Amino acid sequence: MSIPVTLYRRIQELIRDTGFTSVSQFVVYVLRDVVAEMEREKLQAEGLSEEERERILEKLRRLGYI
After folding, report:
1. Residue 27 in contact with residue 4, Cβ under 8 Å?
2. The whole model's pTM is what?
3. Whole-angstrom Cα distance, residue 61 to residue 15?
4. Strands, E, within the chain: which ranges?
């Protein structure tokens, strides 16, 4: 699947004069944030202990997802 042209152009404008060098780089950055948040919510919903949750979150941080 590809990004619709109009959205691509909007992102190009948005990232102009930022540290992002491409639309792809920005999209990956945003998606990592969204996925990490969804994973945190899922972990909370599964009823894991706080210790288990922190251990999993630390693993995700080391892997670069958070």
Report:
1. no
2. 0.62
3. 25
4. none
